Amino acid sequence: MWRYLNYLLYPFSLLYGLVLWIRNRLYDNGMLTAVEFDLPVIAVGNLSVGGTGKTPHVEYLIRLLKAAYRVATLSRGYNRRTRGFLLAKADSTSADIGDEPMQFHQKFPDITVCVGEERMLAVPQLLGDRPETQVILLDDAFQHRSIKPGLNLMVTDYSRLFTRDHVVPFGRLREGRNGYYRADGIIVSKCPPELSTQEQEAIYREIAPYPHQRLFFTCLQYGQPYGMLQPDMAPPPPGASILVVCGIARPEPLVHHLLQHYANVHLLSFPDHYYYTQQDLDKIKMELDHMDGGAKHIITTEKDAVRLHLLKDSIAAMQLPIAVMPVEVRFLFDGADSFNSYIFDYVADAMLAAENE
Predict the structure, then answer these.
(1) 53 pLDDT more than 50
(2) Label partner for 67 (CA 20 to 30 A): which of 12, 142, 261, 290?
(3) Does 237 map to a domain?
(4) Best CA proximity match to 160, nearest among 198, 201, 206, 196
């Protein structure tokens, strides 16, 4: 029944898609102008509303570039409790700058992390405060047409390719599928590590990249869980019962990974970018107590950990054994060297062009 009711949303998707199509055409035809900056600007985003694995790809770029260049990330700071342009500082929290920027700030304290709803205004503020910046990574900026990045990277989930999806509210796309033409590089994320060359070729044909586009494939690579409040805490033993606590768009890959290592895995899911309360901690404690097994552990994501950290005193007082599961991306089909060269070549060319202007 719900499936048929969902089709009632289709006209609204068509209307919303039409509005966005008109907006994009206005930018494409120059009737709405986009600002360019004279330094390398790399945008990382997607067509869908979330869950494509964008954040670990931004982190991959940070690791790749920060040894050679002075890198800054600029995010909107979704669901933060502040407004306007803010630079991450030593005492910043996820409530100040948002969970993803806070994650960048904690993991990479040697780069500049900032947030601002109006990216076109935020970039000059960033450069004014950090004039030494050489490369800017725009996080989740594929639909922000007011800035024209030098390199536009679009991430699409293997399990829900944009070619098979529809515009919200009928589907999960923020704009029509044809929006992918703006991408310079397309990354198919969250692929099975054993993805075959036959399926790779089938996806290539389905996406049908334009001549100017490069197509890459990545999978998630999980690390060793570490204690949220005690980094040296031993990881859960093989026979442990695991309560997965997370507020992310798609927790399924994490649960699937944990089921390969633990027999008893239970998911307690919250909305994406959710800010936890004391009542939530009480619920987590109750769920943990009712689980079967001797050794019981909580595992959460890095993104959730920066939000849970706002309740660190309560978590410590309740002695909740929370471990954090780190995740990175790995390029398939020996694509890492090609992708790295692609990025470094763009940055070098953009910096040279800026010097010659």
Answers:
(1) yes
(2) 142
(3) yes
(4) 206
Is residue 190 over pLDDT 60?
Answer: yes
Q: What DSSP designation does 228 have?
A: S
The single residue listed with the structure tokens 């998707």 is 13
Any residues with CB less than 8 A from the CB of 207 and at least 6 apart, and which? Answer: 156, 161, 163, 180, 186, 188, 215
Q: Residues 87, 78, 266, 228: what is their CA dihedral angle, to the nearest 10 degrees?
A: 10
Residue 341 bridge partners (DSSP): none
Q: Confirm whether 118 is domain-assigned.
A: no
Give the rounded percent of residues in the chain with a pLDDT score beyond 70.
96
Owning domain of residue 249:
224-325
Give the C-alpha distances (Å, rounded to integers) separating 28 from 24, 25, 87, 151, 221: 6, 5, 32, 16, 38
From 168, 157, 124, 117, select the one nearest 139 (Cα to Cα). 117
Break the chain down into helix, strand, coil percent, rounded to 5: 40, 20, 40
> What are the strands of the beta sheet with 71-75, ordered from one edge?
86-87, 112-115, 71-75, 135-139, 41-45, 151-157, 185-189, 214-222, 327-331
SS3 50: coil
Measured CA to CA, the distance from residue 248 to residue 246 in angstroms comes to 6
Name every residue whose Cβ is closer than 8 Å to that of residue 351 and which is 6 or more positions away in sequence: 39, 40, 134
Q: What's the Cα-to-Cα distance from 98 to each of 48, 87, 101, 119, 310, rounded to whole Å?
A: 20, 12, 6, 15, 12
Q: Are residues 30 and 60 in the same domain?
A: yes
Q: Cα(318)–Cα(284) distance, rounded to whole angstroms?
A: 11
Mean pLDDT of 321-332: 96
Paired sense of beta strands 71-75 and 135-139, if any: parallel
Residue 47 pLDDT grade (very low, low, confident, very high; cuts 50, 70, 90): very high
Mean pLDDT, the chain, as a whole number? 92
One DSSP character per residue, 247-272 reads -SS--HHHHHHHHTT-SEEEEEE--T
Phi then psi for residue 43, to 5 deg, are: -100, 135
